[in-house]
């Protein structure tokens, strides 16, 4: 299992490194979105609720771009067939794709969070960074689990570009709620506070529930 | 059902169990319908003549007896749709998929009703058609938006077997999402408005009784409508199969055109398996 996941993960990252189809697009999208928010809100700097909301909405929509492309190569170039012919556990593909998406999100955040601090964020990022990393990690786990499941669900339908976001966005609403509420105290100008524990708990519970659901259901999407 | 007995007599000799199989899907429908009508009448009578006027909101509060049962039944329907989908994935029997589809379809209709009645109530008591501070209403909207993609998802998959499988995966995920979402939204909202009518425990006796009867009536209505749709779908599949046999057409078990609804293939499979009587 571990070797299979490793091999698949290596293949995914190699493909992404050679084609650069997802991650650069996601990062560029995030930076462009910050610029759009600047003009749409007519604000030079944001803080508190607004800052947390902008960050999470941008990350979520950028993630949706990656989610939409996650299985496209497998569906179009016969990756699914080749994988199904191999005598390996099907969950290996879920795990590999989950880790791939997690890696995409990580790179996205390495670009997007400093860009956000540079372009829009009012309070200094360094103060909020340690807590922010924890909240982002919890959010990423959930986005990656739900994103992998939704991507596999949508990729072999006729309207996959439409269905991916339509299915994914409502499912990810709790992540946005939890993530934004946990982040907003970090971004207040006057008295920054630690993220409230109940939001971290909500995010953790979401990650756990949907991780298990994705694990239980993924096999059924790979049967033909 | 009456219309299942009107099949051409000629085909009845060829089919091993035509009338029995058709009637099995409609069995209990009449009893269910009658009890629904009775329960609905009783519930409405209680709402208008028995339940006392609420001190603060007056007559407007009566919408509570429609809105809250609608919401509870719709949510239960979504979760039940997920449980039926689990059963479908375990047994691979398309009839479970059909039940799951019908339940979710009907819950969607109930959910539209919930959103409309909730809006009316919000407008009446708080002056706005939409209130973000009411967590239940907001959660409901998110759940509704999620389930609104159920039919497009089905419609986008042509192969019926894969359509059923993918729809079940969606139904289970979404079914688990319902409670999760309610927790998240409930937590996110400060209780700005006193929840006078949050649960039955703080309702005065007559109101609680009226509410419970309304809830029961709504559940019966839901069950009847689901049963009716199942019966209609089975009957339509049977009519199509008989018509195909009558015209001597053999190929193409699936009906013309794509459909978001699961299609039952009666003529080819009917004799092979016992016809399903254990509906919802």
Notes on the protein architecture:
Chain A is mostly helical. Chain A has one domain (2-222). Chain A is 79% helix and 0% strand. Chain A has helices at residues 2-19, 23-41, 48-69, 72-77, 79-85, 91-119, 125-155, 160-183, 197-217. In chain A, α3 (48-69) packs parallel to α7 (125-155). Chain A is globular and about 60 Å long. Chain A starts with a helix and ends in a 7-residue tail after the last helix. The mean pLDDT of chain A is 92. The two termini of chain B are 17 Å apart. In chain B, 40% of the residues are buried. With 280 residues, chain B is mostly helical. Chain B has one domain (29-245): Four Helix Bundle (Hemerythrin (Met), subunit A), CATH 1.20.120. Chain B contains ten helices and no strands. Chain B is 69% helix and 0% strand. The longest helix of chain B has 43 residues, at 205-247.
Notable features of this structure?
heterodimer, A: 224 residues, mainly alpha, 9 helices, B: 280 residues, Four Helix Bundle (Hemerythrin (Met), subunit A), 10 helices, 69% helix, 0% strand, disordered N terminus, disordered C terminus
Secondary structure layout plus pairing:
The complex is a heterodimer of chains A (224) and B (280).
Chain A: H1 2-19, H2 23-41, H3 48-69, H4 72-77, H5 79-85, H6 91-119, H7 125-155, H8 160-183, H9 197-217
Chain B: H1 9-14, H2 18-26, H3 29-50, H4 64-91, H5 94-126, H6 135-147, H7 150-155, H8 160-188, H9 205-247, H10 266-269
């Amino acid at each position: 299992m571990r070797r299979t996941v490793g091999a698949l993960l290596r293949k995914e990252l190699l493909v992404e490194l050679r084609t650069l189809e997802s991650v650069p697009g996601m990062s560029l999208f995030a930076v462009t979105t910050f610029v759009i928010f600047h003009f749409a809100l007519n604000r030079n700097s944001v803080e508190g609720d607004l800052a947390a909301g902008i960050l999470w909405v941008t990350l979520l929509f950028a993630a949706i771009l990656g989610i939409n492309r996650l299985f496209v190569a497998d569906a179009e170039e016969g990756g699914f067939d080749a994988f199904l012919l191999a005598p390996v556990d099907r969950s290996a593909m879920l795990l590999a794709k989950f880790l791939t998406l997690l890696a995409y999100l990580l790179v996205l955040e390495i670009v997007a969070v400093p860009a956000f601090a540079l372009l829009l964020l009012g309070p200094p990022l360094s103060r909020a960074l340690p807590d922010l990393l924890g909240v982002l990690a919890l959010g990423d786990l959930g986005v990656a689990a739900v994103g992998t499941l939704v991507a596999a669900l949508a990729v072999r339908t006729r309207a996959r570009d439409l269905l991916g976001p339509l299915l994914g966005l409502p499912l990810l609403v709790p992540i946005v709620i939890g993530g934004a509420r946990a982040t907003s105290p970090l971004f207040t100008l006057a008295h920054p506070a630690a993220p409230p524990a109940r939001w971290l708990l909500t995010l953790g519970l979401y990650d756990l529930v949907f991780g298990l659901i994705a694990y239980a259901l993924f096999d059924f999407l790979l049967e033909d | 059902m009456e219309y299942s007995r009107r099949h051409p007599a000629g085909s009845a000799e060829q089919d091993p169990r035509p009338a029995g199989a058709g009637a099995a899907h409609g069995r209990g429908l009449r009893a269910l319908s009658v009890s629904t009508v009775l329960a609905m009448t009783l519930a409405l009578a209680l709402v208008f003549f028995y339940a006392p006027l609420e001190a603060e909101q007056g007559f407007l509060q009566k919408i509570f007896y429609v809105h809250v049962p609608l919401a509870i039944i719709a949510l239960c329907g979504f979760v039940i749709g997920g449980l039926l989908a689990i059963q479908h994935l375990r047994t691979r029997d398309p009839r479970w998929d059909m039940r799951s589809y019908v339940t979710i379809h009907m819950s969607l209709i109930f959910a539209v009703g919930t959103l409309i009645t909730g809006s009316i109530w919000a407008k009446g008591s708080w002056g706005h058609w939409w209130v973000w501070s009411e967590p239940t209403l907001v959660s409901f909207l998110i759940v509704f938006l999620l389930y609104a993609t159920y039919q497009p998802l089905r419609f986008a998959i042509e192969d019926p077997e894969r359509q059923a499988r993918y729809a079940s995966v969606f139904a289970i995920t979404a079914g688990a999402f319902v409670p999760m979402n309610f927790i998240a939204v409930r937590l996110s909202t400060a209780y700005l408005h006193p929840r006078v009518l949050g649960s039955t425990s703080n309702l005065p006796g007559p109101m609680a009784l009226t509410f419970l009867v309304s809830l029961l009536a709504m559940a019966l209505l839901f069950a009847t409508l689901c049963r009716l749709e199942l019966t209609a779908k089975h009957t339509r599949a049977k009519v199509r199969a008989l018509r195909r046999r009558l015209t001597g057409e053999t190929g193409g078990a699936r009906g013309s055109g794509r459909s978001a609804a699961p299609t039952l293939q009666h003529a080819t499979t009917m004799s092979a398996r016992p016809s399903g009587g254990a509906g919802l």
